[in-house]
Amino acid sequence: MTFDDMNELVEKYVPLVNSDIYDVVKGAPEELYNASLHLIKAGGKRLRPLVVLATARALGGVDAEARAIPLASAVEIFHNFTLVHDDIMDNDDFRRGVPTVHKVYGVPLAITAGDLMFSLSFASILRSLEKGLDEEYVIKAVQALTEASRKVAEGQGYDMLFERSWNVDAEDYLRMIYLKTGALVEASAKLGAIAAKAKDEVIETMGEYGRLVGLAFQIRDDILGVFGDPSKTGKPVYSDLRRGKKTILALKAASSNEKVKELLIDIFNGDSSEEKLKEAAEAIKSTGALDYAQGLANSYSRLAVEKLDMLKASGLIVDEKAYRALRDLAVFSAQREK
Amino acid sequence: MTFDDMNELVEKYVPLVNSDIYDVVKGAPEELYNASLHLIKAGGKRLRPLVVLATARALGGVDAEARAIPLASAVEIFHNFTLVHDDIMDNDDFRRGVPTVHKVYGVPLAITAGDLMFSLSFASILRSLEKGLDEEYVIKAVQALTEASRKVAEGQGYDMLFERSWNVDAEDYLRMIYLKTGALVEASAKLGAIAAKAKDEVIETMGEYGRLVGLAFQIRDDILGVFGDPSKTGKPVYSDLRRGKKTILALKAASSNEKVKELLIDIFNGDSSEEKLKEAAEAIKSTGALDYAQGLANSYSRLAVEKLDMLKASGLIVDEKAYRALRDLAVFSAQREK
């Protein structure tokens, strides 16, 4: 698949959203604002703004798309805030090919930059008032970001607590990634529907679409973290195994076989020779964990497409290109190579 | 002065606000929520909720006071979030007589607990919808907290940058403490006026009151940090000098006399014998820095009272007790011993 409609909209949206974000993340002290822009400037997929803007356009046409820009910036600023704080917590040195914010500016300024970005994401939501979004919908937008921000923090909490335990099953893991990753994509789709002044049921249906895309995307991320091609992902081979990340692959493989579990524990405790890493990757395949995870991603992806098609069947889609881009994204989430 | 009206309302409000906060800061994972409640449970003055609730009552009576409770909880939760992150950045071990959140739960969970509390402060604002506050005013409330949260982050940024430099004058310092401390008290007073459905000019006037009280409070805090009685403040004698805090006292004293500046630089670089500390405290008095700072606090306090009296003269005060409590607070801010 080539995902032409999705790629066309991404190309249109990235400069729009970037320039809007630079309008919001602007102020003094300069060093704090530079720290806040550091990762945003380094790139990123702008997946969440795509969801916001394409949803707004699919349901409300180009007027809704224009109204949705401050909402798209809000979720991207929020997403980058979470990366700044996550990098501190994980003590990561690099992201998007540049040193992380706390490596450049120090931990205290990086914590504060994250807090500032959190605040600016709400400021960006409120700018939709000036874009002509009614108060009723602005409140819905604030509610959507507030709810997502709570879930993201809870998901981050679970993620850290899971690091200490192997007593985590697939259900626990899926709830965690829904909170940590899915909830913000869910909010992105809701925000797009809100910008289109959609009915509550439609906002909820798009939220479901976002949740499913977010889950497919994260599970595919877990797969690429072990089996991804380093020349495409930009990450070292077996990177999630080296980092000791308890992804769905590791959890599923460990739960199916005591020997595999011991192997993974060894690796996660630091004994990560190339040989052991290769053995673990093979075990993840042989236990069926890889097929299980890809199957999950595929079914979330299919369900997401169904949500869109329900809206289409109800005559609620007013823009074919945006609709096809959202369909593309649902498929891409589960199949992407990078 | 005995501040009877203020103390009476504080006694009424503290249990109300605490119980409301416990309704908001509730969820899973348990350890994350425990970390979020850790400092809130340890006490604190609940100064900001007092400003919210007494303002609402002064301008709108007991109905407005009841509507204001989720807004009062919001500012207190937000304030505690800033303490959690500040303690990490300052690497402080104790606050309110208990170990800080990151000392008990580790830095990663403490960062996340702060982020969760940030989110929950917005969630608490949104609960005012259920209390019957109109959408128009709910948006004003979200705007007030958003604006304050941005300023607090900027103020924290300036505070950290100032640590590296002596090239900071009184004006820079006052802007910094307005952002870091004043802005949230300003927002608290605005939120009270918003709960009372006051006109925009009245909301702004109360915001001014809050800003002035916040400034007086912080300058008095700086004074108590050097000259406070340890048996009342609960902090060691000369605590801000030992900690190398560039308060208005240190900046003013250093700028008036090169020898005093050298003495302070020595102390802040770690050479803090009792003798040197005493000498520095004397120098802060002899250079007039103490009188200057107390004079500033007094004039902010007087100006805050004038704002209230303007509203009273316009017939906008509907509750005498709440009005007197706000007057008490303005005076207390500049004169308190703890």
UniProtKB/TrEMBL annotation, chains A, B:
It holds the Pfam family polyprenyl_synt. GO terms for molecular function: (2E,6E)-farnesyl diphosphate synthase activity; dimethylallyltranstransferase activity; metal ion binding. Its EC number is 2.5.1.1, 2.5.1.10. Keywords: Magnesium, Metal-binding, Transferase. InterPro entries: Isoprenoid_synthase_dom_sf, Polyprenyl_synt, Polyprenyl_synt_CS. PROSITE patterns: POLYPRENYL_SYNTHASE_1, POLYPRENYL_SYNTHASE_2. Coiled coil: none annotated. It comes from the Archaea. GO terms for biological process: isoprenoid biosynthetic process. Its cofactor is Mg(2+). The keyword RNA-binding does not apply. Belongs to the FPP/GGPP synthase family. This is Farnesylgeranyl diphosphate synthase. It comes from Acidilobus saccharovorans (strain DSM 16705 / JCM 18335 / VKM B-2471 / 345-15).
